[in-house]
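Q: What would this chain look like folded?
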Amino acid sequence: MEKVRIFVEQMISLTGIHGPAVPILRHLLLVLVTVILAWLFYTICRKLVPLIQKLTNKTAVKWDKVLFNEDVLISACKIVPAIIVWKFLPLVFYQFPSVRVILTRLTAIYIVIMTTRTAVVFIDSFNRLDIVNRRSSTRQYLKSFCGVLKIFMVFIAFVVTIAILLNKSPMALLAGLGATSAVLMLVFKDTIEGLVSGIRLTSNDMLHVGDWITVPNTIVNGIVKEMSLSTVKVQNFDNTIVTVSPQSLINGSFQNWIGMQQSPGRRVQRVVYFDFRSVKFLDQNKKETNMGRFRREMETYLNNRDDVNSEMMVMVRELEATQCGVPVEFYFFLKMKEWKLYEEHLSDILEYVYSIAGEYGLTIYQQYPEQ
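A: My prediction, written as structure tokens:
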């Protein structure tokens, strides 16, 4: 700093200017030198960004390309000129202490904000790392941890900014936060509850991005697209986006279809009602009814279909009789788990059951509307 001041003094002496104009000229030259140096250092940093990216592209690992991406480097470059200005302010405005104090505090606040922004961008880069499967609990933990870390960084930046404005020590302000802890707990209530609920969801392997979930008594019925500290974003099958809080999932109940998606078959459990009067013996010995033969041959039919997983349970059974007739339940698993294909193959099977029942002398019960 002293060398800069001496250089400016020498420049003024070379011009031959004397008298009251010297302080004004000295001040203007110092401002100009500060601006030039700040611009010069910023330009150098921006020139280094492509060089750093070239170096990271040559390495075998992938994490350096993600963590030191262009957004992080450019955001860091914006801090450098502010540091240069902050260092030169005591020299530039040594004759104007009030202006120096104000500009020093504003510059310090800018440095804090930009440093926090750089840290947040850097933390966000961790979510781009393909170190684990996007559905794994590790990735969910990482995302939750990054969210908490960003909140912590913003909170510290807020405290430091207030300390700069009040010209107080940040540690003194942090020590005094004990009296306002209740207020902070109230302000961050949803965030804290969301964090705890998110950790419970992931630690118990209850929910991941990509799962199909349904929530009773709500319109939630679709694929989880994003999980954060405060919301779970679900894209319904009608392409609408629904957000639900992690607390509501933990405190209530929801159905996760990932088990079905990963299993070798999707369950079918349908009941068809038959008229009591159509159930008859097939021979005079009264050893077999048409209902019994129908059930056994329907099981054989299901086991022989290519779209039915015969290695899982296939069962056609009678349930307890009702006023609507004899209920026969068809219980089996289709290999097609995708919704449209599942419904198409299920419809084919049920239509065959409806049409073949008459050949066994069975009548499907139906209630006619009153005239």
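The first helix runs from residue 2 to 15.
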